[in-house]
């Protein structure tokens, strides 16, 4: 295939081996925040946001779109901390003798000497006002996802929703183009509907980029890309159609297993689904960072959060056992809990940030438009595909619309990927908290679920009204 570069076993294996070794057990980033904030006001990118001017930071935040975790200090010594409405960027804090210390990664604060039970999380869509000297604290919600229930009223209703989603998507990619200028740009591409839509819009509205696809290479004669349903095969076809190069990231089972501890800490979650996804992103992050080389920090666009927005999840059966089980809820309630559960877990942004890669999730920036689509439309059989056809038309190739749903951690219609690697080697969520050599991870399960303290399964869950859903998985 023209334009394909393979990083991993075989060609380029030495580069990945070097990056994998560097990624294991490194010291935490010395900066307080390791994740880049992306903010836009009235469609234009802004370098920061002043939350200290006036008594209502929520009014300033209401004009902002983006992924952010902000910590500002007023002239009077009050600390103001805020997170984006979906909680894409995480924000933890701990009190110090001199004030408040914050980080995007819970583990960084623990490594700096803060006891885990004294590390707190700012909930998504909230502002925290904290004045340690005066012993004052308040937690204020400024945004909340609103999920449309019911069914579409007719064909015209579907077309109107599709038009709003299309307009919001195109507006979002024009916003992204402004922050992508002058940087190496990558797009996660599995060949599925969500990632292909991102790739098509990025090619049209952002410009040239490198597509990147992950696969586990077991080392046998029939390696990744040998089956027509493989992510690598379909992603290569999409990349060729778009005229962009493809970076194929191949990881051996041993390399996958070597990343588990780092993903547990940097992904801030030990539930199977999110760890399996985090392992994919750990390999992608190392490969993208090495491929981009010195210079501006690379920017990766992904299709994450779409599945939460439309509740597009089904369990996967592997070796006779069901994985990624869902709670038995009505569709609208499941959709809301999955979206709210994005507050917890950091399978993508936190993991990739450790590799020096910035992430933008375009679907998360369009959450309001997608959540306004009636639940009965997007959760009905074929409903998501029908909406996508209305939104994208023939801009997405027919073979992508027709492809069955495949998850990156599974790798194809025949289950494999990081799920297969870990299950076959007995590495599961029931063993991780106690078995991890980074013993602080095991303390996540004992933290208080109230008042912004860590919940069972992840250090970043914050509210009791979503704990039942996020205990199942983030989404």
In short, what is this structure?
The chain has helices spanning 13-23, 57-61, 106-111, 155-180, 193-205, 231-242, 253-258, 260-266, 272-292, 306-309, 331-340, 349-354, 362-365, 367-371, 375-378, 383-392, 398-401, 417-424, 432-435, 467-472, and strands spanning 4-7, 38-41, 44-46, 64-67, 69-73, 79-83, 92-96, 99-103, 120-121, 126-131, 136-141, 185-188, 210-216, 246-251, 299-301, 316-318, 321-323, 358-360.
Tally of DSSP helical segments: 20
How much strand? 15-25%
First-last Cα distance: 34 Å
Task: Give the helix level as a range of percent.
Answer: 25-40%
Major sheet size, sense and barrel closure:
6 strands, parallel
Q: In terms of per-residue confidence, which ranges show pLDDT below 50 for 5 or more consecutive residues?
A: 9-31, 434-475
CATH class of the largest domain: Alpha Beta
Can you put this structure into words, describing what you see?
It is a single chain. The chain has 475 residues and is of the alpha/beta class. The chain has two domains: 4-30 and 146-472, Rossmann fold (3-Layer(aba) Sandwich); 38-141, Aminohydrolase, N-terminal nucleophile (Ntn) domain (Glutamine Phosphoribosylpyrophosphate, subunit 1, domain 1, 4-Layer Sandwich). 36% of the residues lie in helices and 16% in strands. The chain has helices at residues 13-23, 57-61, 106-111, 155-180, 193-205, 231-242, 253-258, 260-266, 272-292, 306-309, 331-340, 349-354, 362-365, 367-371, 375-378, 383-392, 398-401, 417-424, 432-435, 467-472, and strands spanning 4-7, 38-41, 44-46, 64-67, 69-73, 79-83, 92-96, 99-103, 120-121, 126-131, 136-141, 185-188, 210-216, 246-251, 299-301, 316-318, 321-323, 358-360. The strands form five sheets. The chain has a six-stranded parallel β-sheet with strand order 1-14-13-12-15-18, with helices on both faces. Strands 5-6-10-11 form a four-stranded antiparallel β-sheet, with no helix packed on it.
